[in-house]
């Protein structure tokens, strides 16, 4: 009590606690995905700090004489040697390394799934667009920080990644060679890249991420969490259980669950056994080199791209490398900007706190599915050699498959998923209007048999009928009341067209109406 | 109102009350109305004291296991030698220390989590309550007040009136970051001709990568891939990594009549050809060789080069052939370069001719 009063007198904590201690959070499994990201981030920071106590970010040459005898007497960099020491001579060091790496994989996988939860439920709509962008930045920074961390041990695999980066940066038109010289402090590999990567990996990017993370969570609190439609839940309230004690216990407990599972995985499954690779040398390489899974997408772009080079006036435009590099950014940015495109199409300026069921936004859902398809096709391309050897295919065929699928599959998936959503809408509508199948056959007066339907209870019916359904935007008449031709901007015309696509009859099934419901209820006595 | 706003607010948005407003519906009137929050259903632990006590014991048991596991962790840390390897079913040979530290830590953490979640699910209230939301946007008065305040502040500053201050301030603010940009200059040297040059030059002998000895034509067998570097390069060299990243060479021997490319034949010696080992895609070292076809393959992204035809790219993302090194045999009987590489090795870039 006394301590709290003391703190309140200086920090004003009671004001904060008043609105937050018993703040209501809605309960749903999919809302735990963001928590998984948060906890794996904390685990990464904890284990990362431990690793910095032993890791030497230096490319100075030294000779190994540690406990791992197969590498005894081999010249290597301090960075690689200290990673070996952490793995073999610091008790528990290997475990911390493994936890750090596994947590990074879980972190990025978690962000992906969390992001698509947000995407498919439309949680990015007003007022949460900025939080969507914060989240997106966290994802991109997570990618980069993972890549940098992977590069630090200076083993044969990570060095190959650093070389890849040199080639990629070199391909930048006009300034590529300058960028490489400034980044590597001279010619590849030089002596600077690992210490530089180290600072960026442990200080710069995590610092920015910590700030974004805090902003992300503050906004979640400030906006209050979204919720799924259901009895008693509206745009004006949030229904759930209080932060204290229920979510403190659940969320706090969940942190330990995530940490425990990652620790156990790290005991069982070895990840990145750098001692098997040997130290990095630019003239050596291990076959089947693969980056961590999230970079497989970039790897696929680079592998599937034809090797276009344009020569002119003593210069070379290295499109074969630069286009994949640019596409990597572009494909991500498209996703980041989607919320703004959608709000431009809908013209909707209202706040949304009730989540959409993905089926009720067929175009959005189909777009998200198409994006994921594109991502997976690229990932497959990143492992084209593994796919080829595993399934006894020619690598040429696999690469051609990826090239064609890159353009075709997302379109196919878009069409299929949109139809699928509309099918589900139809099913929902029938369910709402006619009720559940009872399994009982009844004989109608004229002798026909039909299955009796049981009308839904109000609490089952409500979530099926309480969603928003927009109608397509209509352009005003071409000529106004005074007979003067109206000028319609191109922007407006495009919007009208997009709106017609999003909300026309090709993209959604009209919602059941009260009139339809009443007519069926009275006309057919609840069955049929 | 702009045309866009006029249209959107006019005819295409669904009515706001579509979601219901949380009020109880009058039964029978509107079947789609919000039926309101369902009544709370009691759990066993809410009504049965025995069940609640059982739940308490379960939670305590989980916390207890966690404590034991932490003790197990500490014991493992001291008791198990760090070099001990054990065989574990399905996992194979693993470090005993890593395995037991990881599992005990995992159990210690997991049980705390499981205990807390079980506690929350069984013994803490699960009554769902609504809490009101408030619009994020400020009301009209606040909005106007803020604009007034801002205007007053702007007026006080005389920012709009005193143009000279404004212009010079923007000038100063725009210039000062240049100091930071200039400071970045020493991050690295300018590229100059660095990427164009290697250590290969006329007369440099070709050193076998495996033995460290100069290569004779007889050392190179048909069907094998030999790696090499230029005479004078040593692993003790401070810039060994930078040099080998460009100098690495590979040699193969073919029957001279199998060489399809005229220049390639001219630059070869009795069917021995020497090519840069550094892939022209993004710079991995090439490591795989197929004897029958004389194709070499880069393991990174599978670029494939035909060494019997000027190292043309026949598959994969590389954009141009591997550079060839012209070789001959010197008076001492050893293979040597006849000249340096005639084009830059490794990945392509803007200044590459
Ligand atoms: C460092 C990584 C991230 C962490 C730690 C994190 C954490 C969280 C947490 C704990 C929540 C509340 C619980 C939930 O709805 O799951 C949340 C909500 C949210 N996140 Fe993230 N997130 C991360 C990345 C992302 C990404 C990549 C995106 C999308 C680009 C994103 C967008 C959002 C949005 C829009 C919300 C509000 C959702 C709602 O209220 O329904 N976040 N985040
Ligand atoms: S580096 Fe050789 S194929 Fe990419």
Task: Sum up the structure in keywords.
heterodimer, A: 528 residues, mainly alpha, Cytochrome Bc1 Complex, Chain C, two-stranded antiparallel sheet, two-stranded antiparallel ribbon, 18 helices, 10 strands, globular, B: 353 residues, alpha+beta, Rieske Iron-sulfur Protein, four-stranded antiparallel beta sheet, 9 helices, 14 strands, 14% strand, disordered N terminus, binds protoporphyrin IX containing FE, binds FE2/S2 (inorganic) cluster
Overview of this protein structure:
- The complex is a heterodimer of chains A (528) and B (353).
- With 528 residues, chain A is mainly alpha-helical.
- Among the domains of chain A are: 19-292, Cytochrome Bc1 Complex, Chain C, CATH 1.20.810; 419-475 and 486-521, no CATH class.
- Chain A has helices at residues 2-11, 13-20, 33-52, 78-88, 93-120, 129-151, 156-170, 176-184, 193-223, 243-268, 296-304, 319-346, 362-382, 384-390, 395-434, 458-465, 490-503, 514-523, and strands at 24-25, 61-63, 75-77, 227-228, 237-242, 310-312, 315-317, 354-355, 436-443, 449-454.
- In chain A, the strands form five sheets. A two-stranded antiparallel ribbon of chain A has the order 1-5. Chain A has a two-stranded antiparallel ribbon with strand order 2-3.
- Chain A is globular.
- Chain B has nine helices and 14 strands.
- Chain B has a five-stranded antiparallel sheet, with helices on one face.
- In chain B, helix 3 packs antiparallel against helix 4.
- Chain B is extended, with a radius of gyration of 38 Å.
- The chains are: A mainly alpha (528), B alpha+beta (353).
- Strand 5 of chain A pairs antiparallel with strand 3 of chain B.
- Bound molecules: protoporphyrin IX containing FE (HEM) and FE2/S2 (inorganic) cluster.
- FE2/S2 (inorganic) cluster binds at residues 279, 281-284, 298, 300-301, 303, 316-318 of chain B.
């Amino acid at each position: 009590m006394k301590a709290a009063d003391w703190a309140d007198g200086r920090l004003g904590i009671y004001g904060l606690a008043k609105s937050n201690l018993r703040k209501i959070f809605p309960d749903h499994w999919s809302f735990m995905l963001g928590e998984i990201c948060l906890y794996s981030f904390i685990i990464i920071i904890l284990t990362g700090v431990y690793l910095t106590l032993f890791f030497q970010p230096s490319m100075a040459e030294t000779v190994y004489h540690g406990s791992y005898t197969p590498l005894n007497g081999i010249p290597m960099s301090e960075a690689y040697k200290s990673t070996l020491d952490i793995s073999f001579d610091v008790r528990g060091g290997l475990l911390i390394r493994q936890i750090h790496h596994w947590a990074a994989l879980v972190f990025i996988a978690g962000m992906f799934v969390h992001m698509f939860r947000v995407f498919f439920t439309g949680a990015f709509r007003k007022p949460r667009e900025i939080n969507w962008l914060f989240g997106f930045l966290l994802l991109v920074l997570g990618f980069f920080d993972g890549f940098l961390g992977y590069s630090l041990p200076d083993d044969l695999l990570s060095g190959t990644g650093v070389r890849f980066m040199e080639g990629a940066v070199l391909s930048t038109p006009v300034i590529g060679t300058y960028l490489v010289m400034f980044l590597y402090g001279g010619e590849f590999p030089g002596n600077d890249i690992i210490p530089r990567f180290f600072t960026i990996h442990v200080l710069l990017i995590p610092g920015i991420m910590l700030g974004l993370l805090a902003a992300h969570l503050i906004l979640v609190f400030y906006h209050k969490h979204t919720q799924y439609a259901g009895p008693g839940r509206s745009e004006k309230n949030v229904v759930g259980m209080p932060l204290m004690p229920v979510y403190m216990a659940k969320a706090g407990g969940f942190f330990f669950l995530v940490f425990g599972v990652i620790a156990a995985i790290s005991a069982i499954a070895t990840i990145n056994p750098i001692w098997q690779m040997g130290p990095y040398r630019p003239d050596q390489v291990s076959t089947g080199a693969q980056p961590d899974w999230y970079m497989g997408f970039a790897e696929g772009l680079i592998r599937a791209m034809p090797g276009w080079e344009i020569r002119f006036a003593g210069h070379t435009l290295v499109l074969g490398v630069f286009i994949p590099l640019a596409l990597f950014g572009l494909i991500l940015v498209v996703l980041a900007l989607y919320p703004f495109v959608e709000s431009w199409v809908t013209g909707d300026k209202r706040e949304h706190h009730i989540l959409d069921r993905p089926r009720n936004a067929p175009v959005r859902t189909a777009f998200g599915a198409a994006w994921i398809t594109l991502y997976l096709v690229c990932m497959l391309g990143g492992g084209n050699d593994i796919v080829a050897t595993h399934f006894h295919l020619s690598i040429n065929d696999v690469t051609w498959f990826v090239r064609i699928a890159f353009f075709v599959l997302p379109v196919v998936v878009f069409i299929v998923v949109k139809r699928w959503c509309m099918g589900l809408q139809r099913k929902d509508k029938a369910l709402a209007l006619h009720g559940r199948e009872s399994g009982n056959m009844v004989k109608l007066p004229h002798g026909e048999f039909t299955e009796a339907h049981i009308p839904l209870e109000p609490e089952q019916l409500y979530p099926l009928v309480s969603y928003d359904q927009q109608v397509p935007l209509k352009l005003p008449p071409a000529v106004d009341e005074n007979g003067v031709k109206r000028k319609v901007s191109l922007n407006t015309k495009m919007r009208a067209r997009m709106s017609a696509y999003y909300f026309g009859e090709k993209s959604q099934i009209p919602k059941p109406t009260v009139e339809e419901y009443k007519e069926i209820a009275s006309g057919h006595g609840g069955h049929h | 109102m702009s045309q866009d706003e006029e249209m959107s607010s006019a005819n295409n948005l669904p009515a706001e009350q579509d979601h219901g407003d949380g009020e109880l519906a009058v039964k029978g009137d509107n079947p789609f109305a919000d039926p309101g929050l369902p009544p709370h259903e009691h759990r066993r632990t809410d009504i049965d004291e025995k069940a609640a006590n059982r739940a308490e014991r379960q939670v305590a048991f989980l916390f207890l296991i966690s404590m034991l596991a932490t003790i197990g962790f500490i014991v493992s840390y001291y008791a198990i030698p760090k070099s001990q390897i054990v065989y574990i079913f399905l996992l194979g040979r693993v470090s005993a220390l890593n395995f037991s530290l990881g599992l005990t830590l995992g159990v210690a953490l997991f049980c705390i989590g499981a205990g807390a979640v079980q506690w929350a699910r069984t013994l803490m209230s699960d009554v769902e309550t609504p809490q009101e939301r408030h619009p994020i946007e400020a009301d009209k008065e606040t909005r106007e007040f803020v604009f007034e305040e801002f205007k007053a502040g702007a007026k006080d500053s005389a920012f709009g009136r005193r143009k000279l201050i404004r212009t010079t301030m923007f000038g100063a603010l725009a210039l000062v970051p240049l100091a930071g940009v200039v400071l970045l200059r020493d991050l690295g040297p300018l590229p100059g001709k660095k990427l164009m040059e290697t250590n290969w030059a006329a007369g440099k002998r070709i050193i076998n990568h495996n033995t460290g000895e100069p290569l004779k034509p007889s050392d190179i067998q048909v069907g094998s891939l030999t790696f090499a570097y230029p005479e004078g390069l040593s692993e003790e060299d401070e810039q060994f990594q930078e040099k080998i990243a460009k100098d690495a060479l590979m040699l193969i021997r073919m029957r001279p009549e199998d060489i399809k490319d005229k220049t390639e034949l001219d630059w070869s010696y009795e069917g021995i050809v020497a090519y840069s080992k550094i892939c022209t895609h993004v710079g991995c070292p090439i490591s795989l060789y197929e004897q029958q076809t004389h194709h070499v393959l880069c393991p990174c992204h599978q670029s494939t080069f035909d060494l019997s035809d000027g190292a043309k790219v026949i598959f994969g993302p590389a954009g141009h052939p591997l550079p060839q090194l012209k070789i001959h045999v010197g008076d001492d009987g050893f293979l040597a370069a006849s000249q340096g590489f005639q084009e830059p090795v490794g990945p392509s870039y803007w200044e590459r001719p």
